[in-house]
Amino acid sequence: MSGAQAPDGGSDPVGAGTASGGGGGAVVAGPVVVGSGAGTGSAPVPGGAATRAVPVPAGPARPGGTAPVDRGRTVVAERAVRRIAERSATEADLAGRRAQVAHGAATVHGRGAEVLVDVRLPYPASLGEAGERVRGRMADRVAELSGLTVRTATVRVQSLAAERAAPPPPPGDRERPSGRARRPWSARRAPAALVSLAAAAGCAVLLTDLLSVHLAGRRPARWRTGAVDWLAAHGPGDGAVVAGGAVAAVLGAWLLWLALTPGLRGVLPMAPATGDTRQRAVLDRSAVAELLRDAAAAVPGVTDVRVRCGRRRVRLRARLGFGDRDTAHTAVRAATDTALSGLGLTRPLKPRVTLRTEPYWRPPGPAPARSDRPTRGSRTTDTVQP
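Above: the chain's sequence. Below: its structure in token form.
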């Protein structure tokens, strides 16, 4: 605050003057009264008795500027700190992969901050090592960008996300898997359980009768004595004995066939990857049929596709609603070959493609004469010989 200059060059504290607070205070005309120790001055408003408080700098002003205490302060909002923490958590390098942030939170107390993020780490990954990398990156970036002291940085792993594999290269550029893989062996749980139960039941009944005879002194069961008497009266040439032996031989052969064959005829073995002979993967025949059906149905003009997949061959039957028949047949065959080559089976399937036209199908171009129209149900068949 400065008073008005007197005619003799002095300062007149009671004369008309100006009052300024901070860098840009209001200019008040009239006498200014400064209260002792209050830090403010009162200036009467012209035309009334009311006064208005005028702030007075608390500290000495520097020459040509404002006192440091009056320059203000910088406050970093918690929202900004949270955004920095979330962004920095996704910048951590996890062996070429990145973490995904699901939620973040931040609390600011003075010059200190506490941050927390919930992340989804890529699978597979070491949770401890990956979480420490994310936490370190987040703490460093928050302290660097906000100027605050990070007191606590917390990373919570909510889930693991498997990254989608890159799309496979075209069949021409892809290396064909090497090696042969056998069809996995079936456990045969149902036949093994039935045979085990039947054998266990027969042994239990016979053992119970023998123990009752030798330990309790009872008479043998009638079914056992009757079976012994019947076997003593009938020889190997009897018809009933021959029939029973044939049934036993068939059952034994069936059990041997189950034990010596792998089973699981509904799956197709896939070739192991290059350099990994321990890999064992199979593909359901129904899944192969679905893939071929989708590939053939994508050809323009094809209205209906039926696929039957076997262990050696696959038969595809399609119907054509519009378009050129030969062109559509070539496109269906190419789509089938492309789909089969991308399956990675250890033994490629031999396709057989049959294309039939719908009753309402007409060849493209001008309408032909009635006698030149194709017969109903004409078809084009492509068979690959072994």
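Residues 1-54, 165-178 have pLDDT under 50 and may be disordered.
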